[in-house]
Design a protein that fits this description.
Bound molecules: the ligand C[C@H](O)[C@@H](O)CC(=O)C(=O)O, magnesium ion
Helix content: 40-55%
Distance between the termini: 45 Å
Family: Belongs to the mandelate racemase/muconate lactonizing enzyme family. ENOSF1 subfamily.
GO molecular function: L-fuconate dehydratase activity; magnesium ion binding
Strand order of the largest sheet: 5-6-7-8-9
Structural class: alpha/beta
Number of strands: 12
Largest sheet: 5 strands, parallel
InterPro entries: Enolase-like_C_sf, Enolase-like_N, Enolase_C-like, L-fuconate_dehydratase, Mandel_Rmase/mucon_lact_enz_CS, Mandelate_racemase_C, Mandelate_racemase_N_dom, RHMD-like
EC number: 4.2.1.68
Number of domains: 2
CATH superfamily of the largest domain: Enolase-like C-terminal domain
Number of helices: 17
Cofactor: Mg(2+)
CATH class of the largest domain: Alpha Beta
CATH topology of the largest domain: TIM Barrel
CATH architecture of the largest domain: Alpha-Beta Barrel
């Protein structure tokens, strides 16, 4: 069956998370977790669902960009797309007029991710498999044919990428079995958003420890005294053996980052995340070098907008943890490129998932990474945030701080229609009742 795409619709869906300060950090002080939510329909009735994560008011701009891409998608068949997925990726990212908005970054790249996430969801549904299984069952050559290698061949050639996938075939079945039994290790960010009170932090941390969590991320960066107090509190609660990470969400200059994080070194964070501008590759390299003697790595990626940026971060030894994002990069296609580059440079991947739907999506990618690329769990874990899963038709399943592999066909992007209607901006009931717009 060809599955010709006959319609692409997009909606602005927002959740008022800022009311409770969920998701708050040193730069995003009042985030309303939101999504540009895409549905593609085919002539045979099969649908694909996709989204990209945004924060509040920015969503309407992403929605416009998705609408601008729609004409490139409607009329194409799924079979035609996946028989030359690299070509289709380029069609979207290299349109002669839209490319000027990026290229391959910012709003247009978020929109590309939303559209392509829906196409991957459609493909996985058409095959009757969850996306991670579609990927792990795929012939390595077909995986490679989905990736646009333009601009990265100086770091990773097609032949090298194929070689990585071929070598990782050994032990693949055992790793898949292991994942189905044990799940993929996760860490939680949900205890310590920046604007949570100490009392709330303590309560959430107590609950999380009881539920088996052993790795915790704390937001920092607005006020050093607050950071010292909060890090001390959480380190005391989790003890010396559990893992602590800190996240500044781009708050500092380079020298400021080094001195601020040095002041928090006594709490033994595994990494400092986004210490400075997400575009400052050499700045990250300088911070990495300065913090290495303290045993603190640098993590980044949630605002790393394409494979070219990741390539340079890796080439410059500017990151010790790669944080892929299922909606910031150009969907699965571009994430595959980054997973393979990270493997070549031997830098562990610890995906970003702080946002609505990101946990649902990125679990598929990290399962593929373990089963088919890295074959390692050393220094690796996937972020988890405990919000808004109830709005998805196939929400994540966490057991004992591990992501259990999804079983339903697709990319886990579909939201409950009732949730979409209630949260659609501005006409949904949630927003009609909410005075904060
Ligand atoms: C605005 C988001 O909540 C952001 O703080 C998420 C993030 O940085 C993370 O999960 O990491
Ligand atoms: Mg972060």
């Amino acid at each position: 069956m060809l599955h010709t795409i006959v319609d692409l619709s997009v909606r602005d869906v927002r959740f008022p998370t800022s009311l409770e300060q969920h998701g708050s950090d040193a730069m995003h002080t009042d985030p309303d977790y939101s999504a540009a939510y895409v549905v593609i329909e085919t002539d045979c009735g099969l649908k694909g669902f996709g989204l990209t994560f945004t924060v509040g008011r920015g969503t309407e701009i992403v929605v416009c960009a998705v609408k601008a891409l729609a004409a490139l998608v409607v009329g194409k068949s799924l079979q035609g797309i996946v028989s030359d997925f690299r070509g289709f990726y380029r069609l979207l990212t290299s349109d002669g007029q839209l490319r000027w908005l990026g290229p391959e970054k910012g709003v247009i790249q978020l929109a590309t991710a939303a559209v392509l996430n829906a196409v991957w969801d459609l493909w996985a549904r058409a095959e009757g498999k969850p996306l991670w299984k579609l990927l792990t069952d795929m012939d390595p050559r077909q995986i490679i044919s989905c990736i646009d290698f333009r601009y990265i061949t100086d770091a990773l050639t097609e032949e090298e990428a194929l070689d990585i996938l071929m070598k990782a075939k050994e032990g693949k079945q055992l790793r898949e079995k292991e994942m189905l039994k044990e799940g993929y290790p996760a860490y939680t960010t949900s205890c310590a958003w920046l604007n949570y009170s100490d009392q709330r932090l303590e309560q959430l941390c107590t609950d999380a420890l009881k539920s088996g969590w052993t790795k915790f991320k704390v937001k920092v960066g607005a006020d050093l005294e607050d950071d010292i107090r909060r890090c001390r509190l959480i380190r005391q609660m989790i003890g010396p053996k559990n893992t602590l990470m800190i996240d500044a969400n781009q708050r500092w200059d380079v020298a400021e980052a080094i001195s601020w994080v040095s002041s928090l070194a006594e709490f033994k964070p595994l990494w400092i995340e986004e210490p400075t501008s997400p575009d400052d590759i050499l700045g990250h390299a300088a911070i990495s070098k300065a913090l290495a003697p303290l045993g603190i790595g640098v993590a980044s990626g949630e605002q790393c907008h394409n494979r070219v940026m990741f390539k340079q971060f890796l080439q410059a030894s500017a990151l010790q943890f790669v944080q892929i994002d299922s909606c910031r990069l150009g969907s699965v296609n571009e994430n595959l490129a980054v997973l393979l580059m990270a493997h070549k440079f031997q830098v562990p991947v610890c995906p970003h998932a702080g946002g609505v739907g990101l946990c649902e999506l990125v679990q598929h990618l990290i399962l593929f990474d373990y089963i088919c690329v890295s074959g390692s769990l050393s220094n690796r874990m996937c972020e988890y945030v405990d919000h808004l899963h109830e709005h998805f038709t196939s929400p994540v399943v966490i057991h004992d701080a591990h992501y259990m592999p999804p079983k339903d066909p697709g990319y886990s992007c579909e939201m409950l229609e009732s949730s979409v209607q209630r949260h659609q901006y501005p006409e949904g009931d949630v927003w009609k009742q909410n005075t904060k717009k």
